[in-house]
Specification:
Blueprint lengths: L1 H5 L4 E3 L8 H4 L5 H5 L10 E3 L4 H4 L3 H8 L5 E5 L2 H15 L6 H12 L2 H7 L6 H5 L8 H12 L4 E5 H6 L1 H12 L22 H22 L8
Parallel strand pairs: 1-2, 3-4
């Protein structure tokens, strides 16, 4: 989606980095630092960035609402079991995780205990576990979407089911352009990125995690207006 939007002639992406991580990790640097990450020649065009941690960080939504009053938010959701497993592989590869996936899931409640409260109490506090070890919590999408909805209103949030986007990208991309008020200029080359080969999740663990996410996925229907692709 990031590459598809970047190719639209009426859109300019952030320079240097896909994700600026201002509203979660670098807020103390000030709005001038943030603005410096975007092209100067953006008049008459939209500009954007992609920092997934914004959605989960307990202070990011409030900061975004204060500093970007006209912002629109696009949220991509995917099978939360696959998201958790993929995130673990990603953190393992980066050296931010040392435990097996199953053990990391067991440790998650203790690792996250009190971390959101510490971030809220001390805005400059950076929590390693809150950012890197929230495998299940970050897949409970509806909790985060409901918080965003209270802050921005549902009309300024567009939720994309990644399974639908990968399966048939054109109508999903059309809906994003409509949400952003952008004209159609033909379709870009839709390519899948960041795929990492890995071993399958053991059946028993997958079933356990599917059960864990079921009530959250059921509530997600109100945001997607349909059953999530991974539950069909």
């Amino acid at each position: 989606m990031y590459r598809a939007l970047s190719s639209h002639p009426a859109v300019r992406k952030a320079v240097l980095h896909k994700g600026v991580h201002y509203f979660d990790m670098n807020y103390e640097r000030g709005i001038g630092w943030y603005r410096a990450h975007f092209p100067l020649a953006a008049a008459g065009r939209l500009t954007f960035e992609s920092s997934p941690y914004y959605m989960f960080h307990p202070l990011a939504a409030e900061r975004i609402a204060a500093d970007l009053p006209g912002v629109k938010l696009i949220v991509l959701v995917r099978d939360p079991v696959e998201r958790a497993y993929s995130a673990h592989a990603h953190e393992l590869a980066r050296g931010f995780e040392t435990e097996s996936f199953e053990r990391a899931i067991e440790l998650e409640p203790a690792r996250l205990d009190g971390e959101a409260e510490r971030i809220t109490a001390s805005p400059g506090y950076l929590s390693h576990s809150h950012q890197h070890h929230a495998y299940l919590a970050r897949g409970q999408y509806v909790e985060q979407l409901d918080r965003l909805g209270r802050m921005f209103g549902p009309d300024r949030i567009h939720v994309v089911d990644s399974g639908d986007f990968f399966g048939k990208p054109e109508p999903v991309y059309d809906s994003v352009l409509e949400f952003l008020g952008l004209p159609e200029r033909g379709y870009p080359a839709f390519e899948r990125h960041n795929a990492r080969p890995r071993s399958p999740i053991p059946g028993g663990l997958r079933a356990k995690l599917d059960e864990h996410f079921l009530p959250f996925d059921e509530r997600l229907v109100s945001w997607l207006d349909r059953v999530p692709s991974w539950r069909r």
